[in-house]
Amino acid sequence: MKVIVTGGAGFIGSHLVDALIARGDEVVVVDVLFRGLRENINSKAIFIEGNVCDYSVLTAAVSELGGVDLIHHLAAINGTKWFHEAAAEVISVNINATHRVIELALEHDARLVIASSPEAYGEQKVMPLSEQSEAVFSPAHLHQRHSYGASKYLDEVAIQHAVRSKDLDGRIVRPFNAYGPRLPSDEYGQVIAIMLAKAKSGHDIEVHGDGQQTRSFTWIHDVIEGMLLVSDQEGLAGKAFNLGRDEEISILDLAERIAALGSAKIVMQGSYHGDSTRRLPDLTGNQLISWRANTSLSEGLALMNNEL
After folding, report:
1. Region 71-97 average pLDDT
2. How far apart are CA 1 and CA 69, in angstroms?
3. What pTM was computed for the model?
4. How far apart, in whole angstroms, are the C-alpha atoms of residue 51 and residue 68?
5. Which of 15, 163, 185, 260 is found 20 to 30 A from 206 (Cα to Cα)?
6. CA proximity to 224, closest of 99, 50, 96, 42
7. 26-31 and 178-179 strand pairing
8. Which domains are seen in the chain, by residue range?
């Protein structure tokens, strides 16, 4: 199969590329290297450094493959600090990149799988989050956090419109807090990697707000298995899948477990504007692909700690 992976130098994207290469697919990675790293890219993949918002970059990827059967679209600006610091860029890149890959998929009659996010639900408080859950966003003048979540919501709207009006074979995946090797641990990274790096170095682990906000975390290889099932199975156009676990933990409890792996102490910080108090996926839709995330948080933390 001829596959384009946008954002294939990033955390989830690079693991996806590895899995596609391992099963014998031809893969082109398109990444501007804003957050992705060249060293993450599988040596057997073709790499094009460029902005997915530039349609000529995408057509160059098709030319390299001699056609395209499947597009996995993961390119986006992610990271909580960016949502506040570069809201306009987050909106522009995330929405325009999705428009371009929809155009490409329609032009070449290719299947499209887009990586959305549980952030697309905004501040919805009714759990678990399902296909019938409403997206809830606070007034825009309060903060810019929802630059990301709202852009992902609009990405989903654009996909569903193309499925209904243009016969696009488009599918949506929402990874719930994927973690594992290559997860960024800098100040713009994700919580588990940041905390593990602090624990290893003996620096304070920061917990925002009262720490009682809860999340569910999903081991990267489980997420990739789910993404491949979504992309490979017939008859899933317009379907969306929450790729996560129903194992819920507070951020404070997570920090305490990680702190115990090293010599760090926990310090409390101010809360993030617009941060959801709880986020738990409804997983019943995954029966369609016969998938579940089998790696427990304890198992995943041990695996990731051994990688550092």
Report:
1. 94
2. 6
3. 0.96
4. 18
5. 15
6. 42
7. unpaired
8. 2-181+217-247+280-294 (3.40.50.720)
